[in-house]
């Protein structure tokens, strides 16, 4: 997958990922690896496109503010368990479920904002040529996007 696909996928999923993860977790919840983004993989992909000097600058800039995904994933798992309990509770309380979804969405928003800021710092630290390489690797439109109705 090209870089833009990864970046756009993270951004496009931003608003809906928490809700979708919670719902999927509720319907298919099984112990296993935590859901959510893998920022280290995206960072490695970007670094693979860069010259050695840009790679070092990008890496240093990213490390200064890269959020640790572990606590965000923990909150997502806890949110999925809370939502599962809310769905199964009698009497059902829609407001509790909404609040659980909102908390998970806020958790994802917080992570995304911190991660986005790290990417901005990383892009600022590299040369115009490095940013051009990254831009060239990005597709023109998000994967799966289409202007045609289904």
Structural commentary:
The chain has 150 residues and is mostly helical. The chain has one domain (3-137). Helices cover 73% and strands 0% of the residues. It has six helices and no strands. The model is unreliable at 15-34 (pLDDT under 50).
What's the arrangement of secondary structure elements?
Layout: H1 3-28, H2 39-48, H3 52-63, H4 69-88, H5 94-125, H6 128-137
Helix pairs in contact: 1-4, 1-5, 2-3, 3-5, 4-5
Please give a quick description of this structure.
With 150 residues, this protein is mostly helical. The protein has six helices and no strands. The protein has one domain.
Q: Strand share of the residues? A: under 5%
Distance between the first and last residues' Cα: 24 Å
The beta-strand count equals 0
SS content category: mainly alpha
Topology as H/E string? HHHHHH
Q: Name the poorly predicted regions.
A: 15-34
Mean pLDDT: 78
Over the alpha carbons, how many angstroms does the gyration radius reach? 18 Å
Question: What spatial form do the alpha-carbon principal axes imply?
Answer: elongated
Number of helices: 6
The count of domains is 1
Q: Helical content, roughly?
A: over 70%
Q: What summary fits the major beta sheet?
A: none
